[in-house]
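New to this. Explain the following:
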Amino acid sequence: MKPPAMARMLISKEQNRYKEIDAAKTSGGQFYTTQEHWLTDPVVAFIQTALNHSPGFLDPFAGEGHLLEACAARFQRPIAGLDLHAASWPTNDSLRQIPATASVIITNPPYLAKHSASRKGVAATVAAYYGESGLDDLYQIALHHCLKAARYTVAIIPETFLNSVFPKHNLDLVSVLEKNPFDDTENPVCVACFDTQATDGEQTARAFMGNNFCGTLGDIFALRRTVPRDSRIRFNNPRGEIALRAVDSTDPAAPIGFLLAEAFAYGRENIKVSSRLLTYLSIQGLPRERRPELVAVVNRRLAELREASHDLVLSPFKGNNREGRRRRRLDYALARVLLVESLAEIG
């Protein structure tokens, strides 16, 4: 089915607000890579090793060919591309099948989550892909076919991949990009490098922030602890005595943090059951005079966690702050861990 030229995406159900989107581009999950920031030092080293076993490069979602051009110039190896729509390449629907290849797959596959397809008005166009694969984002479907087709895959994909359930046993390294390689989106991305002969990537895959080594996935995600739900703590309570800014502001002076409610300039009338970024919370049995102590301890623990994990246990948020750092979001499950541990610390 061919999507309409334009579609309407729901922005606010409460205010009945929509905006027009390019449906053809959206249904293809297309973002165009025009910068070479993705060629970080660890990614280059991975590609150089892969080329010891591969003749060149294949992009099964080649589009305008920017990735292939960058690789041809950098590594002086043959390039080839496939695409469903671009006339420059042989036609192939790579979300259904990619021919087996000895080349290194280098690609920026389409991104479109199943739930977003409905919100953006293009669900009918892409529904068959999700049904056939059982996966819930086009980039995951693309990765599945890449890993079946080639030993080596280098893919620019959403950074949310790190917290996804997509199997990572073939992952060799991931380089998180704070500098955006796209001209047409602020979607937080990383470069994931796969070798299908690797088997323990869930633990041993190396994680980088750009060129800087952060640790292995096993080391980093061991920092993400869990605790049973604590009935004392109630999030999204408009009458709560403690506030939570659960997302980094663009202002570096206003990062994720817990505050005394009276110091939080956010209308309590805005709090809903679905609030996830700015909220108030209550803690049953916490004396009023002990709130400042708890806030200090929980913010210290949050800072320690961010430093130890290089922020990678926190979800990426669209755009960077004014210092060029990736904005992050603290989910309530991890916020609850920090609160429970801090309550235990202050006794």
In short: The mean pLDDT is 88. Residues 151 and 196 are 5 Å apart (CA to CA). The first strand starts at residue 6 and ends at 12.
